[in-house]
Predict the 3D structure of the following.
Amino acid sequence: MKNLLVNLDRLGDFDEIVDVRTPFEFAEDHIPGAFNAPVLSNEERVLVGTMYKQVSPFEATRVGAAIVARNIAHHLETTFADRPRNWRPVIYCWRGGKRSGSVTTLFNMIGWQARQLDGGYKVYRRATLDTLDHLPAAFRYIVLAGPTGSGKTRLLNALDEAGAQTLDLENLASHRGSLLGAWPGEAQPSQKRFDTLLVSALRALDPARPVFVEAESRRIGAVSLPLSLLDTFHRAACVEVTSSREDRAIFLLHDYAHLFRDPELFKQQLSKLIGLHSRERVAGWHRQVDDNNGAELARELIDLHYDPAYTRSSHEHFIELPHATQMLFRPNDPDVVEQARALLARLDATALA
């Protein structure tokens, strides 16, 4: 089989990348551009693994081989039925073992020039982590700092539309970053998937141009940023984004509209603030949710939670914040792209001064 093995740097030589792991493994993370043709379902893999431990490795292998053979036959009649004679796929599984090996062998017996990824997904995962150790430091970041509700994400999107180079970490994480920042109806990616998405986003950037990024803590919801990225943009130049208290309250109301449609969930989230705030204060916020008093709740969260938290965290981590370019942003106005262009012009003028 050695002549059928290829390394990770050869993936671009092939027509398609085929991931033969279970749908669960594929959903957790996969090589960019790969598609899933599982030779064991989620349930079948559990069955074989249980047999391996409780019966014997031989029996597990025999049963597993029969299941894999049936599933490969099904894929040949459906998934791969239209592949041409000169098709060249690369196949991988968890660690380049029996699943991908059996598919690669059979494909070559048919006449396709299939190859197996040496080391499987484990090699790809290790390469991803190695890349995250050094690639973030290749860029010069400009950090958008500012309290919650000031519209930093909206400004980041406007900068992207205005032609600037941006890295939207919250979009990659499917989370706004704050306690109430979960996206409605959308789960976050796994840590492995987030790392893959982050590497892909970084590789698409031009190191010769600055990269605008929103100030984030180590965790965005359930996923963590690599320390190499945090270390780099903690030392980066900053733009401190401020908005009027009323603009921020309106902005937060828009962001929290889905929470007001589920008051019990909203109150559960607010209860997580007990410890940072007294039970009496959080109970008062619960009453405002019950009374649909969103405007006053937003103002109190700004004054009593978000602003103190911003003062504590940002001035501790972002060392260039005292020298930041100041921007008064109007996040609810229709001219956000024009505001972004004005910021870019100011930054260009500062660089030339």
